[in-house]
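Entry:
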Amino acid sequence: MDIIRFKSTVFKLGHLSGYGFEVPAPVMKKLGATAKLRWTCTVSQGLSWQCGIVAHKKGAGYIILNQKLMKAGKLTEGSTAVVELKKDKSKFGLDMPDELRELLAQDKEGKLRFEALVAGKRRYIIYYVGQVKSVQLRLERALRCINNLKALPKGKESFAGILAK
C-alpha cells in the first residue's frame, strides 16, 4: 500500500468547531490500524499536509481540516476533492523547526524529556514552536517549552505546564 486515493466531501464536524474530510469505512479497512499511524494527505487542490485519522461512526474516519488548510485549499463545506494518503515516515509526524532541533541537540536533558513524552505531546510542541514565522519567536517558544518541560515532575507533563509563560 503506497498511496490510497478516494473522493471525499468537506463536512462540518458536529462535536468540534471545524471541518473534515470523511474517510469511508472501506478505505479505513484498507488502511488497517490507523489510530497510531500518521499520514501525508494531499488533495486535488494541490494542498498537502501531515495528519492523523480520527475513528468515526460505523467504521469510517475523518481527517481534520483547520482554517488555514480550508483557506489555502479554497475549501468550503460541501467541497469535494480527491484525497491521497501516504504513510508519513517522518520521525515525529511533523517537520521539526530548526530552532527546536538545534536546542534539543544542545540540551541533553531537554532531549531526553522531550523524547519521553507521548507522541501527541511531542507533535504539539513541534506544532506550537513551528506555527510562528519569526525565527526569534520560534526560538523563544522552543526555549520556554523545553525549560518548562525540564522543570515539571516526570509523568506530570501537562500541556498547560509545558506552555506556561
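The first strand starts at residue 3 and ends at 12.
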